């Protein structure tokens, strides 16, 4: 049956809510948009306050130039902005915000109260769910304060998918840290539930990095200072297994850039453990006409005109910072085309397949009783065994994973593992200690944001203690359950069992095993039957 549908114009309310979905993901994105406006208003001090992770209240107050009554009347309309006037302005943007959608989008899904002034006379404008109330006078020093309450109160589907208040507060903290690093000349204060999470005064960029990241981290790194590129290169020892510790700025704009991240990884080279990423802060000065920031609704990503030259410039600069004067620059005469990024595939995410393009076909058998046989060798997390004339391959992973949550003996580390937390990570220090205790790791607090792991359970490979410790900490920030961390690292972090231990596991319960048929082995060795 053919259904005829008429084309109709969407209402302003629906349009604004759709725009809010593109611009506003969570409380952190609201904070970012409001702070961007405060930075563009030439503020010298910006104070942010949140309650319930920002879902209940977000308040951003600045001492910038403020707005007069005519500007205030337009600020909640879509595509109303003071940052650009025509299309050519997009090619030379020097402001943080420019789309003119943020305030309208925020006001459509929350209750907004704006107070602003350019002199001694202030004005106040309130909106609820996109409905704007009449403007009224108010007392206000020069500057602007914006309160955003009950975020997503009129869009239950969006509110349902918000993370916990603690996770949202962590995201806000991370966003404010990034903006504080981008603007050393501005003082920032962040409070949550009345508690000060971050407070930094106006300073130079080196002092700001030390204040935001902590002097204990920054003192161990290398300072990079050259034309068009400066920053701090973290010690490889403090490298993380996610890119959350990397901050990149182009003309003071915080960005996410896989290209620059790859250049950093290549510059560090063998200094880094496989799969790890250094903590780093990089400030890049670039011609505004040679990159485009108008490729993402939230301005997270930029597109560079000559990615190859930029890649080589960043890579060579970092290499020379580690080995001053010994490495020539090839940035001007080498063209680099970055290879496409390949998404990592976890082999444990794939379902078990009996004939997964293997040269040998196998027969899967799942035993539910005491098994007879003899262990031959342990290969990774597999046991090679025999039963009669059959050769078997037994998967030990599930049994190893079950051992993790059973309390057992500890092994003391010859060199304790130290972990220095960033300010937002320290908000979940107690949860980290509790999770480590759950799997039998002995973790102690040795400083304001420093933890030490002195002993680990017998099932963990001591060489992987640091990786496991850090993985637990990072998965807390992503709200990943402990079981998922264990499953993800079961292939690499577990201590290789002895033949006796593997045989005991095999004979103790349900094990997945495959039988290698003699006929298939003959084919494998290219023998005629």
Characteristic key phrases:
16 helices; Ribosomal Protein S5, domain 2; 529 residues; five-stranded mixed β-sheet
Question: What this model shows, in words?
Answer:
- The longest helix has 18 residues, at 165-182.
- With 529 residues, the chain is of the alpha+beta class.
- It has 16 helices and 24 strands.
- The protein is elongated, with a radius of gyration of 28 Å.
- Helices cover 29% and strands 26% of the residues.
- It folds into four domains: 12-87 and 95-202, 2-Layer Sandwich (Heat Shock Protein 90); 207-288 and 299-322, Ribosomal Protein S5, domain 2 (2-Layer Sandwich); 362-396 and 497-524, no CATH class; 402-489, MutL, C-terminal domain, regulatory subdomain (Ribosomal Protein S8, Chain: A, domain 1, 2-Layer Sandwich).
- Strands 1, 2, 3, 4, 5, 6, 7, 8 and 9 form a nine-stranded mixed beta sheet that branches. It has a five-stranded mixed beta sheet with strand order 10-11-14-12-13, with helices on both faces. It has a five-stranded antiparallel beta sheet with strand order 17-24-20-19-18.
- A hairpin with a 5-residue loop joins strand 1 and strand 2.
- Helix 1 (12-23) crosses helix 4 (102-108) and helix 2 (27-40) packs parallel to helix 6 (165-182).
- Mean pLDDT is 76; it is low at 84-93 and 325-371.
- Any idea of the CATH topology of the largest domain? Heat Shock Protein 90
Q: Strand percentage, roughly?
A: 25-35%
Shape assignment:
elongated
Gyration radius over CA:
28 Å
Count of helical stretches: 16
Helical residue percent band: 25-40%
How many beta-strand runs? 24
Class of secondary structure makeup: alpha+beta
Q: Tell me about the biggest sheet? A: 9 strands, mixed
CATH superfamily of the largest domain: Histidine kinase-like ATPase, C-terminal domain
CATH class identity of the largest domain: Alpha Beta
CATH architecture of the largest domain, by name, is 2-Layer Sandwich
Catalogue the unreliable spans.
84-93, 325-371
């Amino acid at each position: 049956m053919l259904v005829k549908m008429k084309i109709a114009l969407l209402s302003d309310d629906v349009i604004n809510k759709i725009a809010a979905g593109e611009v506003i993901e969570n409380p952190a994105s609201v904070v970012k948009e409001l702070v961007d406006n405060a930075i563009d208003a030439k503020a010298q001090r910006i104070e942010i306050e949140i309650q319930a992770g920002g879902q209940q209240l977000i308040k951003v107050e600045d001492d910038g130039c403020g707005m007069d009554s005519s500007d205030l009347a337009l600020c909640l309309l879509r595509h109303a902005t003071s940052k650009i006037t025509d299309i050519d302005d997009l090619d030379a943007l020097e402001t943080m915000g420019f789309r003119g959608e943020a305030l309208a989008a925020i006001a459509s899904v929350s209750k907004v109260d704006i107070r602003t002034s350019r002199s001694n006379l202030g004005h106040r404008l309130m909106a609820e769910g996109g409905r704007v109330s009449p403007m009224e006078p108010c007392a206000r020093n020069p500057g602007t304060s914006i309160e955003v309450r009950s975020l997503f109160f009129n869009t239950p589907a969006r509110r349902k998918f918000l993370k916990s208040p603690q996770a949202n507060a962590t995201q806000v903290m991370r966003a404010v840290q990034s903006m504080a690093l981008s603007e050393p000349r501005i003082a920032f204060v962040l409070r949550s539930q009345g508690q000060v999470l971050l407070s930094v005064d106006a300073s130079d960029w080196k002092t700001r990095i030390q204040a935001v990241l902590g002097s204990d981290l920054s003192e161990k790194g290398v300072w990079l200072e050259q034309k068009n590129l400066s920053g701090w290169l973290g010690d490889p020892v403090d490298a993380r297994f996610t890119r959350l510790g990397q901050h990149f700025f182009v003309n003071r704009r915080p960005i996410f850039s896989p290209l620059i991240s790859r250049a950093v990884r290549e510059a560090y080279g063998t200094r880094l453990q496989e799969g790890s990423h250094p903590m780093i802060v990089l400030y890049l000065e670039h011609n505004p006409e040679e990159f485009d920031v108008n490729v993402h609704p939230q301005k997270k990503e930029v597109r560079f005109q000559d990615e190859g030259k930029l890649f080589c410039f960043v890579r060579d600069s970092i290499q020379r910072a580690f080995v001053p004067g010994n490495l020539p620059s090839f940035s001007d005469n080498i063209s680099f085309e970055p290879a496409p990024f390949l998404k990592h595939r976890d082999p444990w995410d794939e379902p078990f397949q009996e004939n997964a393009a293997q040269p040998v076909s196998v027969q899967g058998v799942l035993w539910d009783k005491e098994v007879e046989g003899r262990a031959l060798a342990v290969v990774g997390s597999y046991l090679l065994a025999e039963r009669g004339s059959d050769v078997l391959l037994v998967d030990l992973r599930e049994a190893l994973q079950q051992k993790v949550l059973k309390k057992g003996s500890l092994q003391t580390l010859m060199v304790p593992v130290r972990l220095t937390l960033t300010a937002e990570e320290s908000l979940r220090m107690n949860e980290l200690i509790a999770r480590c205790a759950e799997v039998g790791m002995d973790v102690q607090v040795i400083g304001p944001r420093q933890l030490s792991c002195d002993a680990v359970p017998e099932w963990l490979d001591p060489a992987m203690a640091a990786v496991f410790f850090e993985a637990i900490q990072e998965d807390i920030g992503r709200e990943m359950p402990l079981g998922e961390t264990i499953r993800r690292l079961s292939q690499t972090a577990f201590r290789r069992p002895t033949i006796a231990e593997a045989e005991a596991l095999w004979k103790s319960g349900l094990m997945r095993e495959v039988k290698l048929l003699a006929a298939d082995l003959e084919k494998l060795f290219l023998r005629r039957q």
